[in-house]
Amino acid sequence: MTVFVDTSAFYALLDRSDAEHARAAKKWVRLVEESQDPMTTNYVIVETSALVQHRLGVAALRTFAEDVLGVVRVEWVSPDDHARATAAVLAAARRKLSLVDCASIELCRRLGTRQAFAFDKHFRDAGFELV
Questions:
Q1: What letter would DSSP give residue 10?
Q2: Are 1 and 115 in contact (CB under 8 A)?
Q3: What is the signed CA dihedral for 47, 52, 26, 44, rounded to 10 degrees?
Q4: Considering its fold, how many domains does the chain have in total?
Q5: Which residues are paired to 3 by β-bridges?
Q6: Which tops the pLDDT comparison, 57 or 121?
Q7: CATH number at residue 105
Q8: DSSP 105-128
Q9: Residue 95's pLDDT is what?
Q10: CB neighbour class for 74 (10 Å; exposed up to 12, middle 13-18, buried from 19)
């Protein structure tokens, strides 16, 4: 079963001082050991890379790029996913709902992915089962 992985989970995994780090590390090991097909989007990779480089530095970015992403399937946001995500952000008119989250939700809906490894309430609000 495919499990979508969000920036919130990647960041918690990489930042030992993050409040969710211990939970993220346990869940990550379980996802990988149980071959639960962790998947993310190209948008999440860009978002996570920028966040990790800015807050944690290049060494952490290297860990993300070389170690973490090595076991993650990357799906590319299509032009249609992007258009639906843009419409969703504008329709919601909420400052803290991001285009990246909306694009990820649209892509997951298109692929039939219903589980998310995330600490972001937007995925729960969208009907995903958080792992």
A1: H
A2: yes
A3: 10
A4: 1
A5: 38, 115
A6: 57
A7: 3.40.50.1010
A8: HHHHHHHT--EEE-S-HHHHHTTP
A9: 86
A10: exposed
Residue range 80-96, pLDDT digits in tens: 999 999 999 999 988 88
Per-residue HEC secondary structure of 26-88 comes to: HHHHHHHHCCCCEEEEHHHHHHHHHHHHHHHCHHHHHHHHHHHHHHCEEECCCHHHHHHHHHH
Domain that residue 92 falls in: 3-130
**Closest CA relative to residue 28, chosen from 83, 82, 72, 94:** 72
Alpha carbon separation from 9 to 5, 91, 104 (Å, rounded):
6, 26, 14
Tell me the three state secondary structure of residue 97: coil
Provide the phi-psi class of 57: left if phi over 0, else alpha when psi is between -120 and 50, else beta. left
CA distances to 5, 34, 62, 66, 74 from 120, in Å? 11, 23, 24, 24, 19
Alpha carbon distance 6, 65 (integer Å): 15
pTM for this structure? Answer: 0.95
Amino acid at 75: E
* Residues, the chain: 131
